[in-house]
Amino acid sequence: MIFDDELKQLAIQAFAERQQNPASELIHLNNIEKEHKALIEEAEDLRSLQFDLEKRSQEYQAALKKETEARQAYKGRGSQVRVGNAFRHKLVPILSQQLKALHQSALQQRSGRHHSVMKPLMEAIGNDYDVVSHITMSCVLDGIGRGVTMSTPLTTVCQNIGSRVDHEAFLRLVKEKDPNGWERVDRWVLNSQDTKRGYSYKIRAATGLTEITNSYNFIDSDTAAGFGKWCFDALMMITGWFDTVLWTTGSGKQTRTQYFVGLTQEGLKYRDLIQAAADDACYEAWPMLVPPEEWDLEEGKRGGYLSHHPGQVSKLIHNDMGTIPSQQAMDALHKAQSKPFKINGFVYEIQKQLLARTEEIGSFRTYEKDTWEDVNRPYINPEIFDYKWDDNRNERPEHKEARITLAKFYAAQQVAEKTRKSPIRVLRVAARFRHADRFYLPCYFDTRTRLYYVSDTVSPNGSDYQKALLLSADGAEVTPENRTQVWNNLCITLANCWANKEDGVKTDKLSLPSRVKFAEDFLKELEVVARDPLSTAARSIWTSASEPFQFLACVREIFELFYWKTKTRTHLFNGRDATNSGMQILGSLCLDKKAMWFTNVYDTPDPQDLYGEVAREAQALLNSAVWVQQKIKHYTKQTKKKMKKREEEGRTVRPIDYTSFVLGIDPSSVDRSILKRAVMCTSYGASWQSKNEYISEEIEEAFKADPFNPTLIDKRLVTDAAIEGQSSAFPKCDELNDWFRAVGKAAMEKGLEYVSWTTPSGSFIRQEYREPNITKVKTHAMSGQTYRMLKENRSEGRITLSVQKGWGDVKQNKAATALGANFTHSLDSDVLQGAITQTRGDFFTVHDCGYYLATDCDYNCQALRDSFERVVTAAPMQSLIDTNELTLEIPSKGDGDLSEIPHARHMFS
Fold first, then answer.
1. CA distance 274 to 98
2. What is the set of domains in the chain, with CATH numbers?
3. pTM of the predicted protein model
4. Distance CA 672, CA 668 (A)
5. Comparing 78-92, 341-355, 360-374, which segment has the lowest mean pLDDT?
6. Residue 300: pLDDT above 90?
7. What distances in angstroms separate CA 902 from CA 402, 575, 829, 908, one per listed residue?
8. Over the range 626-641, which residues count as b (16 or more CB within 10 Å of their CB) and which as e?
9. Count of CB atoms within 10 A of residue 356's CB?
């Protein structure tokens, strides 16, 4: 006979195997396709079916979350399910007050037990009632799981409470008294990436890394149970939701009678109410089979989906702080969400087959355990693990190296497992609409009136492989009159998606005629890609593209239209992107001739490259021995000062070889691709840390397959070179960032609670940042399988309880630093909205880019240029000053010429 617990374990195991079994995922996708194909074919009324699909989406998402929470609860993580979180948020503040009152009252009495047990442990924890309350609730909720059965003895719950409060007190003492020990605990235990080890293992590991262990007296199990019982009794006083039942378990000599913890009828009712509310809040935004409803702000009519859904899904403006979109903005949104799409069956089938393998093609990453391990598992002599210590009881270097190598392998494997879930989630939604003749994507605004699509799976806002899944449902006829135009635009798209260097120049940076010529030559060897993209010969080509799946879709479209002649309508969307839209807009507002030139606002014979210009300036600095030595001297001074401070604090100071502070990276390798993200965000006033993070990631990616290992000094030097290079090449950018910060600061000093402005089309934008009033409870040692330190400014829900009680003071610094980015984004959205109202044919938008049919690219790019000219000639910076009634002067203007904008052929290309 199989008992309930065994059934649960078998079910969990089967679910885990299904999640990692590629064959079963393909079967699952096929079943989804068949089911939804039948629904669509048999539907008498698509509107009624749409209502049904919206309900299905909610039920589907609720079922997925329940499945996940059931596994968590079964593994002793009941405090992490939605019901557990609701209980904690409700009861922790109340329990904290109750514990405080009981403790202070008992201290005034002569209770020997309280003075001998509760008082010492409460003093050790610093009388932090919030932490004790948090741990109490977590242990109780982990004990009852979802509250369906009573499976955890009361004694166990109480012992867990007492011991974990004791562990928290121990860690606080280590942090205070033993900085070196704390550093080891922090590094090897609290921040360990080892998720295979549980709580008990990690607390033992922590005790072995500090001298405090020798003098700290951990409480025994009876004392822990006594302290935990006191906390549990306090919980029972404030609510009737928990209960204890005396049960007899076992038989014969194993018979045992003890109390078990569970929920009362009242607690079960509250749990069910929370669960019902959580289920109502579940929703995954799918495409629609009928056009989305239009919004009517004057009449208060909601648009988008047919039925109301929770959270942001049914809101016109997400995270709205008072923004009012203009009529132009509303017209653009309604036009964008009225365009019909269909799934690109060719790309969909390719992606579906790739799920059965371990693949990393651009952002499309799949995982299959055996093939992943074959490629990535390190080969280590097992005999190394037989001899851990040398004669002095120090870990042998080869053992340490093998241990770290394996740890990295398992960590990378977990990342691979998680990463594969994104393509699976996207393809599950795509499967539902695989056989739909057309579907639609509802839209919304952010607070700057940038336009986005609600769906985050089958969506233009997604990665390359997500965009490639989308085709125009209607398409456009290719005629003798437009045949050359279609051919040229598809060739330009092919060159843009390839975007690799040919003769030292990336193909998306060639002139438009040169892109067409490149594509025409390249197409001679691409028929194998169009016919059999999964063959070895084809894969070696298309997977090398910068945007591989859009490249693949483009090749197929060209061959179907012009070589095989199997269709006469084009359905492919062709992306046309701006050149650093932030600098395009801000440079034009200030008539900065150089910025306008390098962002293609002028009609140049060949496309100019702002990122490449900054890279040239950065390379010049990195090639200057004087500049490099000055920087290294500065870094050395900073590091020595930091080490001295650590030494004064009594912390471990590792010897540093300052002779290793050298430039190791080849300056010529610091090209536009490494600097692009950092340069782009400079227009928006990004911090040094953000730029360094972007550059570090790009350097790691660039040298991933190279034996050269870039150092922190390399990354820091490149970051400083990029910043100083951009300041040297485009000094107006720094002036503008300073000006926006001055405007935000002046508005706050004037007493304004927010900064606002009106865009050229009339949208009212309100920027408001406030400090949330939050009560936070932080612990180091928590329940379940988690044992980590809470990092500053990083959310870690398993070890912190945050209860928001409203909004507080204005974030004055944020109002100043965020203004440049928000103002510029509101203008690029105005440019796009103005163009959309004039756009011909089907299209979709992504931030500041447009994707059009090949029959309409030329006309629509002209609409973009015309809209851009309208925005930058409307004096929006003066509007920012006037709206907030400030007295600042706008930055001085240069000698740039806006008259060439309508003719700037590479401005959107």
1. 24
2. 72-280 (1.10.1320.10), 610-729 (no CATH)
3. 0.82
4. 11
5. 78-92
6. no
7. 62, 19, 18, 11
8. ebbeebbeebeeeeee
9. 15
